[in-house]
C-alpha cells in the first residue's frame, strides 16, 4: 500500500500525517480515527435529542414507524409533497407528535450534512496529498 506523505514523498510506511486509499478508493488517514469519533458523537447527539423529545427511544421508534412516510417532506427532491401540500399539513390540526417528528427529521438532516462535509474535507485532503506527492515525484525525476 502506498502512503501519500506531507513531505511529498510517497512511502510504504504510514505516519501520523499521511493518507492512503482503502480498497474502495476512499482516502484514509490516522485523522480518520478522529472523524469516526466525531461521527459517533453526532449520532449519539441525534439519539439524545430524539430521546429528550419523546421521553424514550422506544416512544420515538413507535412514532417513527407510523410517520415514516413524512420523513422526506421538505428535505428531499424525492418528496411527493409540494410546498402547498406541506403548508396544508402544517396548518392542519395534527398531533404534537407529528410536529416533533418533522422537527427531529430536520435535525437529522442537518447532522447528516455535517457528516457529509467532514467526509468531503477528508477526501479533498487525501486528494491534495496524492496530487502533492505525484507532483513531487515528477519534479524529482
Provide a quick synopsis of the model.
It contains 4 helices and 3 strands. With 141 residues, the protein is mainly α.
Descriptive overview:
This protein has 141 residues and is mainly α. It has one domain. It contains 4 helices and 3 strands, in the order βββαααα. It has a 3-stranded antiparallel sheet, with helices on one face. Strand 2 (18-21) and strand 3 form a beta hairpin. The longest helix has 45 residues, at 96-140. The chain is elongated and about 70 Å long.
Order of strands in the sheet with most strands: 1-2-3
Catalogue the unreliable spans. Answer: none
**Helix percent band:** 55-70%
For the record, the count of structural domains works out to 1
The helix/strand class is mainly alpha
Molecular shape: elongated
Arithmetic mean pLDDT:
83
Helix/strand order, N-terminal first: EEEHHHH
**Rg for CA atoms:** 22 Å
Query: Regarding quaternary structure, how should these chains be classified?
Result: single chain
Q: Note the total helix count.
A: 4
Query: How is the main sheet built?
Result: 3 strands, antiparallel
State the end-to-end CA separation. 22 Å
Strand content: 5-15%
Q: How many E strands?
A: 3
